[in-house]
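Exercise 3.2. Students should predict the tertiary structure of the chain below and write it as structure tokens, then compare their answer with the key that follows.

Predict this chain's 3D structure.
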Amino acid sequence: MTRYQLAVLLFSGLCLQSISTAQTMTIWAGVYSSEQAARGEIIYNTACIACHGKDLGGNSNSPGLAGMGFMFLWEGRTLGTFFEKIQENMPTDRPGKLPAQDYVDVVSYIMQANAFPNGDNELPKDLDALNDIAITARP
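Answer key:
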């Protein structure tokens, strides 16, 4: 392979990466519904509140799920990564035991508690779709 061919290949790869990055949705696009967040709040109040608190602020053993604490831990990642983390590890007394829909509903509630806008569609429980939604501080 010549240097020219290698340069063209690298440039093409960078262009494709830029295109796919530009197509990534963010949490500011209204990725969950208010009804879904309401269901998530009920689940949160039964399965999560003991450790993460009513205000989602966390405690010395549990991270905050709202505000600067949430953004410090999750900005630059995807909702898929966040979903996987809580599905694999939460609740601590029975990790992974809730239905996938419950986990995604809790994620929706956490988005609402962080004042990220809601929309008309529910947040999907499909991991590939969740991995296409970036957690960003600004729209």
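Discussion points: The CA atoms of residues 1 and 7 lie 10 Å apart. Residues 3-22 form the longest helix (20 residues).
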